[in-house]
Structure formats: structure tokens, C-alpha cells
Amino acid sequence: MAKHLxxxxxxxxxxxxxxxxxxxxxxxxTEPKLVLVRCGEREDDIAYEKSILRQAARSSVETExxxxxxxxxxxxxxxxxxxxxxxxxLHGCLIFRPLPEGLGPDRREICNALAPEKDVDGCTxxxxxxxxxxxxxxxxxxxxxxxxxxxxxxxxxxxxxRAAVIGRSLVVGKPLAMLLTxxxxxxxxxxxxTEDLGDICRQADIIICxxxxxxxxxxxxVRPGQTVLDVSMNYLPELKNADGSLGGFVxxxxxxxxxxxxxxxxxxxxxxxxxxxxxxxxxxxxxAERSLE
Length: 293
Ligand code: NAP
What we know:
By secondary structure, the protein is an alpha/beta fold. It folds into two domains: 28-123, Rossmann fold; 142-272, NAD(P)-binding Rossmann-like Domain (Rossmann fold). The chain has helices spanning 7-27, 43-58, 74-85, 107-110, 125-133, 142-153, 173-182, 197-203, 255-258, 272-292; strands at 3-4, 33-39, 62-68, 92-95, 162-166, 186-190, 206-209, 227-230, 234-240, 246-250, 264-265. The strands form three sheets. Strands 1-11-8-7-5-6 form a six-stranded parallel beta sheet, sandwiched between helices. The longest helix has 21 residues, at 7-27. The radius of gyration is 19 Å and the shape is globular. It binds NADP nicotinamide-adenine-dinucleotide phosphate. NADP nicotinamide-adenine-dinucleotide phosphate binds next to α10. The site of NADP nicotinamide-adenine-dinucleotide phosphate has 26 residues, from α10.
């Protein structure tokens, strides 16, 4: 039976490190601060906002929420981001994405109004370039970085290993493929048009599921010795919980099948979600430290 890679263990280690670094910053007169920018009232955004605020409290990072109405114009959004970029008391900024469709087809470009050194969730083009080149300001998206933190915490060395990353989004799969490549893994980046996903998974030493498709990775697609990280959070209203209630989250891997074969697997829930918000705080503290350099 596979070892379970638990988000709370990884997050606790990150929180301890962040708290220590926050204390050192405070001694130098700097209060690490994160601002959350939310446009509109999407339920998902509000739930994520609450969990970030709880995480910030645990990590003793100051926070502020700036909210804009859903019908804001791109100019209003950019003006706010420029204002926050110039505020020396703020070290990190997270923009809830995707931005409302009303902001137009170029809405991703709006994020580029944020200074890359405050882009703690890797949403600007400059941050993407930094992930690609390994140089420059900005940070990788927190979820992609959370996967590396989990591998590091549990001592999974990527060097020379084959990694299959399933999903090629800008927030998870693509940056993660770059980060793993920088760690000397040999990466296969899979997507909805990939043929023979089962073969690719079986050949891999590390499988990272980020497709948002429950049931995608089955017991037949894995072999002994592998590490599986399941990033996906798929809500299933029909899922039966132990207490008889309905509704819950699952990943892309069929957990009960896959855990019988592989060496280690992160559960959903209880895996990477908690690590992602802990990484966000780590990035805020790193941004605050860099601001003193
Ligand atoms: P996304 O933008 O919808 O991207 C999904 C990716 O999966 C796409 O590249 C898609 O391929 C690929 N895909 C879809 N069906 C596939 C299939 N049958 N086989 C192989 N690849 C397939 O999703 P996302 O924003 O990256 O999120 C992915 C999952 O991660 C979601 O469940 C989300 O909830 C979760 N997530 C978790 C966290 C966290 O903190 N734990 C953070 C962010 C996201 P194409 O490009 O060909 O369409």
C-alpha cells in the first residue's frame, strides 16, 4: 500500500519557516503584507480567499482584500494594480483568476500591470518568462511550486527521473513542466490530445495529475515504485461521505486503485491544496526579503 503524502505535514514545515522569516523581517522594521485582488463575487474566489486569510493568520503575514465590482473596466483594474505595485508597504499581490469575462478577450494581459516582484502567484508574463529562463523577478504559480515542495519534503529526487505531467494549463502543468526540467527530470507534458496516456504514465517515475478529470488515472496505468501527486480538485455532488452526507472532492487518480500499486500518492482532499496556500505565504516573505536587498 502506498505511503500517503500529506499536505498538512508539508504545510506545517513551510509555516514554521515562514514564521521564523517573518519574525526576522519584523526585527528589521518590515511587516510582510499580502494584498488579495478580487473582481466580482464568484463563490470559488470567496472560498479561496477565506482559506488564504486563515493561512496568512497561521503564518503571521498581514493581509488586505481589495475588491472591485464585476463590471469594472480593464482600465480600472490596471489602475488598481499599478497603485498596489507602487505601494512600498505591500510585498505580494494575488489576483483571483480567471478574471470576469466582461473584462474582455485580453483579460490575461491586465495582470501585466502588476510589478513582477510583487507577483507572488506567477500571473504576469514576466513571471512566466522567469520560470522559463530561471532568471528575473517574479515567482512561479503557487500550485506548481507546491508540487516541488511536496517532492522535496518527502525526499523524492527528480534528477534523471521521468515525469509525466497531465494538464498543460498556465497555472499548473506548463510551469510545472519547466520547474521539473530545471530539476533535471525528463518531462512528458500530456493534454487532452495525448495518445497512449496509460503507456506514458506507466513509464514515468513521477506522475502529476492536473487535468481536472475524475477517474482519469486508473490502477492499470501505474506500476510499483512510482510517486503520484494529484493536484486536481474535482467536486462530485453524488459522492457519498462516511457520515452519509453527499458531495465532496476527488482528484484525477482513482485513489483506491492507484494506492494499491504505487510507492507514494497525495490524497484529495488532504494533499496539495493546503501546500499551495502555504507556498503563497513563502512567496510573500521572499518578496519582502527581496524588497530589502
Ligand atoms: P484547466 O485549465 O482546465 O486545464 C486542464 C488541462 O488538462 C488542459 O491542459 C487539458 O488539455 C488537460 N486535460 C483535460 N482532459 C484531459 C484528458 N482526458 N487527458 C489528458 N489531459 C487532459 O485546469 P487547471 O486550472 O490547470 O486545473 C486542473 C485541476 O487542478 C483542476 O481540478 C483544479 O481544480 C485543480 N487545481 C488545484 C489547485 C490546488 O491548489 N490544489 C490549484 C489550481 C488548480 P487541453 O489543453 O488539451 O485542453
